[in-house]
Specification:
By secondary structure, this protein is of the alpha+beta class. The protein contains 13 helices and 17 strands.
Length: about 400
């Protein structure tokens, strides 16, 4: 029996190029290892930042690439990968592929449209406002209007980016202006969203798995890495933050701590250097830096950047992912119901994950849907699978089989 050739597409023209490379390489590595290597052969299809396709280092056309594979596992992120473009190309060549189709992918990536669908179907999501911010336009009037009418603090994010690119936290007027500017650097379409305190949860589903039409993966709770030195260990005047610090989860506390005065930040960095040692690392509000390069750190020279929080750190190894999570039965059931609605109303295929905030006071809120979640070795999706006794190779093979089944 001949091997099934699995084209793993990675890279792409989006700003999530490196994330895609890492995920794609991990899938290729698994395909080279038994038991998957007994049935499948991975074909590395690299799309560079200019959008040019390559196989084994040689430039090829999409048509040639598709001739060399039987099924496709795309790990492209953001633009071109999750906005429906790569899905349309694959369907043009009638090539079966893992994941949701073009419309569902584009809908999920577009945070504004996703929120409209959440509200339409009775799914709780943080209150938000959409803005169009043309390049070069003075942001002060917009920020002033928001600051007077919008509940603070807020999370500011580009409308159509993944992996938390361009995401910022703001609680003061200067921070809001800088957050808007930061997000505008990624997209002129920006979302301003109320900040909700609670546990950060990642949950997901797999279709037609373990005898269930929709298998619910174990929710994963996100925490800062246990080996990191947190700013909270060194900062005394957390009370100056415009958030009730004691009510925050560890990851949220890291955000709030970034709002202290810059002199305190600088002092904390100095303290961290002493604690970490000559070759150590310190963790400050979502930023990992070597003690040897802290002089060039944005904390020392650019206080504005202290408010830029990268939720994507939770995928990078800077965070621990705990599963099973510390959720009540009611909270788990609510997340399960939301995932079922999303699967149905967004018309998702094969598998997907979603990010949630579970507030002890306000309940479960969905933040966004991911049709192409990160799947490198540090990704929370594997922690969830492990909690359910699912081997990584079983998951990957199941997704490939779902793609082949849909392609018949």
């Amino acid at each position: 029996m001949s091997h099934i050739r699995v084209g793993v597409i990675r890279g792409g023209p989006s700003q999530e190029y490196e994330v895609s490379l890492k995920t794609g390489q991990h899938i290729l590595n698994m395909l080279k290892t038994e038991p998957l290597s007994l049935t499948y052969t991975g074909v590395d299809i690299l799309i560079d930042k200019a959008g040019i396709w390559h196989i084994d280092g040689f430039q090829v056309t999409p048509e040639i690439a598709m001739r060399r594979v039987d099924v496709v596992f795309s790990t492209l992120k953001g633009e071109f990968g999750e906005d429906g473009k790569i899905q349309n190309i694959l369907e043009l060549f009638s090539k079966p592929y893992v994941g949701s189709r073009a419309y569902a992918s584009a809908l999920s990536l577009n945070k504004g449209l996703s929120k409209e669908h959440f509200k339409k179907h009775g799914i709780k999501t943080p209150y938000h406002k959409e803005l169009n911010l043309p390049d070069g336009e003075d942001l002060s009037p917009t920020a002033e209007g928001l600051f007077k009418t919008f509940p603070m603090p807020v999370v500011v994010k580009p409308r159509g980016q993944g992996s938390s690119l361009g995401v910022s936290f703001a609680s003061t007027f200067p921070e809001l202006i800088e957050a808007l500017e930061h997000a505008r650097g990624f997209s002129n379409e920006v979302i301003v969203e109320e900040y909700i305190s609670g546990k950060e949860i990642i949950s997901g589903f797999i279709e037609d798995f373990r005898g269930q039409d929709l298998y619910h993966m174990f929710p994963v709770e996100v925490h800062p890495h246990k080996n990191m030195v947190k700013l909270s260990d060194m900062v005394a005047d957390e009370e100056s933050v415009n958030v009730t610090v004691d009510d925050l989860s560890p990851e949220e506390k890291a955000i709030a701590e970034e709002l202290v005065e810059n002199e305190v930040i600088a002092k904390a960095v100095s303290e961290a250097e002493k604690l970490a040692g000559e070759n150590g690392e310190f963790f400050a509000g979502g930023h990992i830096a070597s003690t040897q390069d802290h002089v060039a750190s944005p904390y020392a020279k650019h206080p504005a950047h202290e408010k830029m929080f990268d939720w994507g750190k939770k995928y990078s190894g800077a965070y621990d992912h705990k599963s099973p999570s510390h959720l009540t039965h009611e909270e788990k059931e609510t997340i399960k119901e939301v995932m079922e609605k999303i699967h149905r109303e967004f018309n998702l295929d094969h598998f997907a994950t979603a990010d949630f905030i579970v507030s002890p006071k306000r309940g479960v809120y969905i933040l966004e849907v991911n049709t192409s979640p990160q799947m490198h070795q540090e990704s929370p999706i594997y922690k969830s699978l492990e909690a359910g006794g699912v081997k990584d190779h079983q998951f990957i093979e199941h997704l490939i089989r779902l793609a082949l089944k849909r392609g018949k």
